[in-house]
């Protein structure tokens, strides 16, 4: 019931295609120079965390026992590494505690830019967390990347014990903010701030503050110009507090504290005096008023804006149901988040009761606000807050209003059963001719990155998802663990246990060589510049920018946009012409595969001045590779036109002339050739089976690419093999005789005319008939 319902939702919600417009395999990405992959010693890399350092043009990867520094230009060249394994006694102690060997290693889970010259790096240290500073950068020519040995310190409260424990951290003005389990047994989930002298944290064992949290993300976001008013936001899931034995649902939360919160003086000592949280909602309205909620936060991405105060928050969610996994992306605005925190506090009489808005007097200064000038400057530190305020905030950490997403709905939804799982998200803001777009990069559990834009239609209040590209960034399937985006370099850095891949965000020329191809792609990075599909730069970025650019991301209306640039489609000389030979009663494939997986393929047969659509039947089948004739008849001969339709734009890809050879004729041709000896067979040169097609690339059909050329010999060999003439060696000999090259002719001349040399010559000739053909054929 629920499954069916979700399925219906998925189809009703958006206009979406499950096919990407372009799908690129790992091999293709490598061939296109679109990607590079860093693999450490061929072993599994197990990256735990990654950090982008554009200042030093490096990306750091915290892995098992090793910290890597990779080049942002090309991740697989000039890498550096620091080995930082646990010591033997540490590993032994870990094993004594009953842990697995694989867990008893130093997994680097915290990686922060401490200052211009140093990273703060923390690892699990075989269940004994440890931190250290790492020197980075360069002095003159010397590249620096080394552990500061005398800076090693305990990592307790900064790094979890367990490599699989979820944690999040952010560093701002020398202070580390971190959400983690602070203890060996994973009982104490806390959100903390640490520097080397003080710490502030959530209350221990206060299930009202945090209840079995799973930490996902965090960011420091200023409210205004007053740095003392900066807030730290963190994103997590937790179990709802219910009465004894109640069903404890999982919720996604956004929590926040003041960055400068030092806790109270008499109460809440070293505890947050500003901790508040509320629920993040990501749901789809059902037909009968029942919403389907996506409550499990998988990943969060904070898309910064210019002044840093109003980033957009992208959450990747899944359903909490064990039976059914659906995924959704919701976008939140800071206005909405702030409004929830400025709204009423939540209140309930007892855990079994419903939450209601707290309506009594709220003490001053408002609980949750920071000690800052903006708030009147009456308090220079949280330590001066009245007890009444601290008491209130301690007993009312939950806000009544949840945060709703933009447009009150997900921007992206995946609800079909059995599809791949979505694991990570990164987002780029791209300026296009018709507005700005968010390009979503979504990592999956099978090494794929999906590049998607979502378009909101105000008139219909609906969302359109456009799946631009599906990129298989690793050779073998593995869950994507991290995606970091560098808008400056227009690159993605993608981590999985297999390695770290670097992928260029766009490759416009791939969409095709015509205006329509470019326009239909709807890629906001790309536009038609009159000659090619190339990177689009908004006006003013490059003052001497080129001609008029054609781009229509919103509608992909190629008919309108490329009007006048296209010759009448019917007469275009551009569409490729091919010649295909079928043998009567045998199968033949007319191959036609459009670049775009979203295009619909149509076939037409032109014959005797008529043109009609080929719809397919039990003998003629429309496959994703082309039109397949199971048993071709001589009446099938004609010109087949392969057209694609996409967004109302019709495009002729290919014209194929199908010639049908009569079976006996082919057989007899072969037999004739076999019966004859060398001299006889050399005569019909070139052979007279009709016009000569070029080489075939298809295993089933004879699909020459163009006019006969130097490769026709290769094609001919294949041809004979394909029509069922199985004796490869004799086919080769036969080809050799039939398709005597100039060289061969000269050779034969020598062979047969040189007196007295016949025996030797013949012997050599036999050798040649096996060796030379291969060379000439492959030449
Ligand atoms: C990829 O790079 C290599 C080496 O730099 C070059 O030879 C090759 O032509 C490039 N391929 C493409 C498709 O640009
Ligand atoms: C960064 O911090 C380290 C350790 O406190 C210190 O030695 C170094 O001088 C600092 N670098 C800068 C540029 O402040
Ligand atoms: C850390 O402590 C040392 C010594 O107590 C102090 O000199 C240094 O400034 C402190 N660093 C920070 C970032 O507070
Ligand atoms: C082609 O058809 C003929 C006649 O039906 C048959 O003998 C021959 O084996 C077929 N060849 C192939 C390659 O199917």
TrEMBL record:
<feature type="region of interest" description="Disordered">
    <location>
        <begin position="742"/>
        <end position="779"/>
    </location>
</feature>
<keyword id="KW-0393">Immunoglobulin domain</keyword>
<dbReference type="InterPro" id="IPR036352">
    <property type="entry name" value="Semap_dom_sf"/>
</dbReference>
<dbReference type="GO" id="GO:0007411">
    <property type="term" value="P:axon guidance"/>
</dbReference>
<feature type="domain" description="Ig-like">
    <location>
        <begin position="573"/>
        <end position="657"/>
    </location>
</feature>
<keyword id="KW-0732">Signal</keyword>
<dbReference type="GO" id="GO:0071526">
    <property type="term" value="P:semaphorin-plexin signaling pathway"/>
</dbReference>
<keyword id="KW-0325">Glycoprotein</keyword>
<dbReference type="InterPro" id="IPR003599">
    <property type="entry name" value="Ig_sub"/>
</dbReference>
<dbReference type="InterPro" id="IPR001627">
    <property type="entry name" value="Semap_dom"/>
</dbReference>
<dbReference type="Pfam" id="PF00047">
    <property type="entry name" value="ig"/>
</dbReference>
<dbReference type="InterPro" id="IPR015943">
    <property type="entry name" value="WD40/YVTN_repeat-like_dom_sf"/>
</dbReference>
<feature type="compositionally biased region" description="Basic and acidic residues">
    <location>
        <begin position="757"/>
        <end position="770"/>
    </location>
</feature>
<dbReference type="InterPro" id="IPR027231">
    <property type="entry name" value="Semaphorin"/>
</dbReference>
<protein>
    <recommendedName>
        <fullName>Semaphorin-3E</fullName>
    </recommendedName>
</protein>
<dbReference type="InterPro" id="IPR007110">
    <property type="entry name" value="Ig-like_dom"/>
</dbReference>
<dbReference type="InterPro" id="IPR016201">
    <property type="entry name" value="PSI"/>
</dbReference>
<keyword id="KW-0964">Secreted</keyword>
<dbReference type="GO" id="GO:0030335">
    <property type="term" value="P:positive regulation of cell migration"/>
</dbReference>
<dbReference type="InterPro" id="IPR013783">
    <property type="entry name" value="Ig-like_fold"/>
</dbReference>
<dbReference type="InterPro" id="IPR013151">
    <property type="entry name" value="Immunoglobulin_dom"/>
</dbReference>
<dbReference type="GO" id="GO:0045499">
    <property type="term" value="F:chemorepellent activity"/>
</dbReference>
<dbReference type="Pfam" id="PF01403">
    <property type="entry name" value="Sema"/>
</dbReference>
<feature type="domain" description="Sema">
    <location>
        <begin position="21"/>
        <end position="505"/>
    </location>
</feature>
<comment type="similarity">
    <text>Belongs to the semaphorin family.</text>
</comment>
<feature type="compositionally biased region" description="Basic residues">
    <location>
        <begin position="743"/>
        <end position="752"/>
    </location>
</feature>
<dbReference type="GO" id="GO:0005615">
    <property type="term" value="C:extracellular space"/>
</dbReference>
<dbReference type="GO" id="GO:0030215">
    <property type="term" value="F:semaphorin receptor binding"/>
</dbReference>
<dbReference type="InterPro" id="IPR036179">
    <property type="entry name" value="Ig-like_dom_sf"/>
</dbReference>
<feature type="signal peptide">
    <location>
        <begin position="1"/>
        <end position="17"/>
    </location>
</feature>
<keyword id="KW-1015">Disulfide bond</keyword>
<dbReference type="GO" id="GO:0001755">
    <property type="term" value="P:neural crest cell migration"/>
</dbReference>
<dbReference type="GO" id="GO:0005886">
    <property type="term" value="C:plasma membrane"/>
</dbReference>
């Amino acid at each position: 019931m629920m499954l069916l319902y979700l399925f219906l939702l998925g189809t009703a919600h958006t206009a979406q295609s499950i096919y990407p417009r372009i799908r690129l395999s790992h091999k293709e990405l490598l061939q296109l120079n679109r990607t590079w992959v860093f693999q450490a010693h061929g072993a599994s890399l197990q990256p735990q965390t990654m950090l982008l350092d554009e200042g030093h043009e490096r990306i750091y990867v915290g892995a098992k026992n090793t910290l890597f520094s990779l080049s942002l230009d090309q991740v697989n060249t000039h890498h550096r590494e620091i080995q930082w394994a646990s010591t033997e006694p540490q590993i032994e102690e870990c094993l004594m505690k009953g842990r697995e060997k694989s867990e008893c290693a130093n997994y680097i889970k915290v990686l922060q830019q401490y200052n211009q010259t140093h990273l703060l790096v923390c690892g699990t240290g075989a269940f004994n967390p440890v931190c250290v500073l790492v020197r980075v950068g360069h002095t003159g020519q010397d590249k620096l990347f080394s552990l500061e040995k005398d800076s090693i310190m305990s990592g307790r409260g900064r790094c979890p014990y367990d490599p699989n424990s979820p944690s999040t951290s952010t560093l701002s003005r020398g202070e580390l903010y971190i959400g983690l389990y602070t203890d060996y047994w994973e009982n104490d989930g806390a959100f903390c701030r640490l520097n080397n002298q003080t710490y502030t944290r959530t209350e221990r064992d206060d299930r009202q503050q945090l209840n079995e949290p799973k930490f996902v993300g965090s960011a420091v976001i200023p409210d205004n110009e007053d740095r003392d008013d900066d807030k730290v936001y963190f994103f997590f899931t937790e179990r709802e507090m219910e009465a004894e034995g109640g069903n404890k649902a999982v919720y996604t939360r956004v929590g926040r504290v003041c960055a400068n919160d030092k806790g109270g003086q008499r109460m809440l000592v070293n505890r947050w005096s500003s901790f508040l949280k509320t629920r993040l909602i990501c749901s789809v309205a059902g037909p009968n008023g029942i919403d389907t909620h996506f409550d499990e936060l998988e990943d969060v991405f904070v898309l910064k804006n210019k002044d840093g105060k109003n980033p957009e928050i992208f959450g990747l969610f899944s359903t909490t149901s064990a039976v059914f996994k659906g995924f959704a992306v919701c976008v939140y605005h800071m206005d909405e988040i702030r409004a929830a925190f400025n709204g009423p506090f939540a209140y309930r009489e007892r855990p079994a009761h419903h939450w209601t808005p707290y309506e009594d007097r709220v003490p001053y200064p408002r609980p949750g606000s920071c000690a800052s000038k903006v708030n009147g400057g009456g308090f220079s530190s949280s330590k001066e807050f009245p007890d009444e305020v601290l008491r209130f905030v301690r007993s009312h950490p939950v806000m009544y209003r949840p945060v709703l997403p933009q447009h009150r709905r997900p921007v992206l939804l995946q609800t079909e059963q059995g599809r791949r799982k979505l694991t990570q998200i990164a987002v780029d803001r791209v300026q296009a001719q018709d507005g700005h777009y968010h390009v979503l990069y979504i990592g999956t559990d099978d090494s794929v990155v999906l590049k998607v834009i979502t378009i909101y239609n105000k008139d219909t209040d609906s969302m359109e998802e456009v799946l631009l590209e599906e990129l298989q960034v690793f050779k073998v399937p593995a869950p994507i663990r991290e995606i970091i985006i560098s808008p400056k370099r227009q690159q993605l850095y993608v981590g999985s246990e297999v390695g770290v891949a670097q992928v260029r965000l766009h490759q416009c020329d791939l969409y095709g060589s015509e205006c329509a191809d470019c326009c239909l792609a709807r890629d906001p990075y790309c536009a038609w510049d009159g000659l090619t599909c190339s990177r689009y730069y908004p006006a003013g970025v490059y003052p001497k920018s080129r001609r008029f650019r054609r781009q229509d991301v919103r509608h992909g209306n190629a008919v309108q946009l490329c009007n006048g640039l296209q010759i009448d489609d019917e007469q275009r000389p551009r569409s490729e012409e091919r010649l295909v030979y079928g043998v009567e009663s045998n199968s033949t494939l007319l191959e036609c595969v459009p670049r775009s997986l979203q295009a619909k393929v149509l076939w037409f047969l032109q014959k005797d001045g008529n043109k009609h659509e080929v719809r397919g039947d039990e003998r003629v089948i429309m496959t994703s590779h082309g039109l397949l004739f199971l048993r071709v008849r001589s009446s099938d001969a004609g010109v087949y036109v392969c057209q694609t339709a996409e967004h109302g734009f019709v495009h002729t890809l290919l014209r194929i002339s199908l010639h049908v050879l009569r079976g006996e004729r082919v057989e007899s041709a072969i037999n004739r050739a076999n019966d004859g000896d060398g001299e006889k067979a050399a005569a019909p040169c070139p052979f007279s089976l009709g016009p000569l097609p070029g080489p075939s690339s298809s295993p089933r059909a004879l699909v020459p690419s163009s006019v006969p050329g130097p490769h026709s010999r290769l094609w001919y060999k294949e041809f004979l093999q394909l029509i069922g003439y199985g004796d490869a060696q004799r086919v080769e000999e036969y080809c050799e005789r039939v398709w005597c090259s100039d060289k061969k002719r000269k050779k034969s001349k020598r062979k047969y005319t040189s007196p007295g040399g016949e025996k030797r010559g013949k012997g050599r000739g036999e050798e040649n008939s096996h060796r030379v053909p291969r060379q000439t054929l492959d030449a």
